[in-house]
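Project standup — Tuesday

K.O.: blocked on the structure for the chain from last sprint. Re-posting the sequence here as requested.
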Amino acid sequence: MSRSIRVDAVLVQAVIAGALSFAHLHDLAEAAGQSGWKAWAYPVSVDLLLVAAWRRLRTARRDRSAWTWFVIALFASLGANIATAGLLDLAHVPDWLRILVAGWPALAFLGGTLLVHTPADKPTPAQPVSDEPAVPEVDVTREDVPAPVPPTEPAAPELAPAPPQPAPTTPAVPAALLDHARKLADAHKASTGAPMPAETLSARLGLPAPMTDAIAAQLQLT
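H.V.: unblocked you, prediction finished:
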């Protein structure tokens, strides 16, 4: 059997199944109080929702929303086929079925809107497969190249030695001042019997310390 004959058989089977389901949905809607063109609109609404959910599943098979609306539309179609098979008295349709049939247009509109306007996840593009053989990686590091020497810190500059401080010079003592100091020292020794201390001579003369030290050194006072 050729491919064209198999395709034609499938199309014929689809047309027969669609026509029967269409008629069952029409009969159920008419029995639930939807007369005239409204009874014919219900099968169209159910089939359109079923097709829209199936098309969404082809692009996003993990979309739970698409699966939910596909099951709802399939249940509505199968339910009408089973209900019109003699299991339901179409002359006395229960109230809950009338409520479901009356509320179906709003439910179908909501499902169709969500299926159309909800963005689908974009498939991750596959990595292109190259026919060229992979080039092995080659280590280009040369072992004979010496390792870089870290820069050495510059040595601190040597400080120049401080110049020697000049030795303090002994101030020159005038001869008259030296004679006056000797007289005071002799008078002190004659009266006390002990040489005059340098502190006493400094107090008596009222001179600066360097000058007094120079006089005491020459007079050999302690």
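K.O.: great, moving the ticket to review. The mean pLDDT is 74. Residues 3-31 form the longest helix (29 residues).
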